[in-house]
Specification:
By secondary structure, the protein is an alpha+beta fold. It contains six helices and nine strands, in the order αααααβββββββββα. The longest helix is centred in the N-terminal third of the chain and has 11 residues, at about 45-55. It is globular.
Length: about 240
Amino acid sequence: MSVHLKMLRLQRGLTQSEVAMRLGLSNHSAVSKLETGKLRLDERRLRALAALYGVSVEEILGMTPAPPPAAPLPPSGERVSVPVSSQPSLDTGAALALPVPIRQEMVRDLPVRGIAACSSGDGAFQIETATVDYVRRPPALVGINEAYGLYMTGDSMEPKFRSGDLVLVHPGRPVRPGDHVILLLRDHPRAEPYAYCKQMLRRHGGKVTVGQYNPAMELEFPETSVVTIHRVLEMSDLFGV
């Protein structure tokens, strides 16, 4: 297939498990086989995959030429200007009814910060300050210059996020219990900050409690050590689906 299915999935912020669920496949390993060319889809699932990724069936099958190169990145420091009416609201967590554009219509200017020093215990990691990659910007993040992406490492949040999955983060969105978040912490003012990708559970009594899946546990931190809590966006946030 001429279309890179894994890249299409990552650009839309989906895990292999989520794609498998949408297509009615048994598990994420079926999607892995699909992305490596070891599995072919029937016509119904092929059309469902094309609709999910916002491309044509012909592109999935590799019958059309490769899409044109991505538009050049804006000069450093330049802000993207869009009409106010087209910007997503920041005061609500409701999904926006946004059309899913085709791949080449999304500008590749959303920065990705790499992840390093991922531990095998509670899933703590350090976020790189430098941009390591750019990915295509989905509709809900047009004009949101502070948005960023992260590549996940480790397995502490499986099956929701697997190692290598891309997540997109909107620092301006309010965080609610049940949301997945990037939690940045610092033990004392001169200490190096460290981060977690976890599920927000509650904030009460001067403490922040988050959860992870693998192994299942709750982690509790004092509010005084919390630098930021940024919301990881779901497909409904990005495309209103």
